[in-house]
């Protein structure tokens, strides 16, 4: 897939995986979020490897991130969206969402999925709504999976 980059002054959004600061992304997701708290770095690396990633940078420093899981024809899941606190309020999250929604490989999708309890105001600007028929929605969710992975690794080391 073609790498796309856009610039606004000292800010850049890029889909180039090689530019991602994995340690910075891991630090934020594993310490500052509810949804990925404690995520092992290898799990994060695998998720990035298998996603379309959008890095947000200020003078080449990673300040934000989002990733898409998609078949590029019918459906996409938007996840792990963040902008560091000190860079919020500058329109960067809206710009990031514009770049994601305008990506040429994500045009004409039948369904976009997003799970969030933050920044609903932002996502509503891009057409996201609450689920009209939540009784149709099903999930298998294990919020302790990262703890279980860590415990399994520790037990193997002790064996």
UniProtKB/TrEMBL annotation:
Q: Which UniProt keywords apply?
A: Acyltransferase, Transferase
Occurrences of domain N-acetyltransferase (ranges): 11-143
Q: Which SUPFAM superfamilies does the entry mention? A: Acyl-CoA N-acyltransferases (Nat) (SSF55729)
**Gene Ontology molecular function: any one:** acyltransferase activity
User: EC number(s)?
Assistant: 2.3.-.-
Tell me the domain of life.
Bacteria
Gene3D superfamilies registered for this protein in UniProt? 3.40.630.30
Q: Which protein are we looking at?
A: GNAT family N-acetyltransferase
């Amino acid at each position: 897939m073609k790498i796309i980059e856009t610039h606004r002054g000292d800010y850049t959004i890029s889909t180039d995986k090689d530019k991602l600061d994995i340690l910075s992304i891991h630090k934020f997701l594993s310490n500052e979020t509810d949804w990925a708290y404690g995520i092992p770095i290898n799990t994060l690396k695998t998720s990035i490897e298998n996603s379309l990633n959008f890095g947000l940078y200020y003078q080449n420093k990673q300040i934000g991130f989002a990733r898409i899981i998609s078949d590029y024809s019918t459906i996409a899941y938007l996840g792990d969206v963040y902008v560091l606190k000190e860079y919020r309020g500058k329109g960067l999250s809206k710009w990031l969402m514009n770049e994601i929604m305008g990506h040429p490989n994500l045009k004409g999708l039948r369904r976009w999925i997003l799970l969030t309890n933050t920044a609903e105001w932002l996502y509503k600007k891009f057409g996201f709504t609450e689920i009209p028929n939540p009784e149709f929605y099903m999930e298998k969710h294990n919020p302790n999976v990262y703890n279980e992975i860590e415990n399994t690794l520790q037990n193997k080391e002790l064996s």
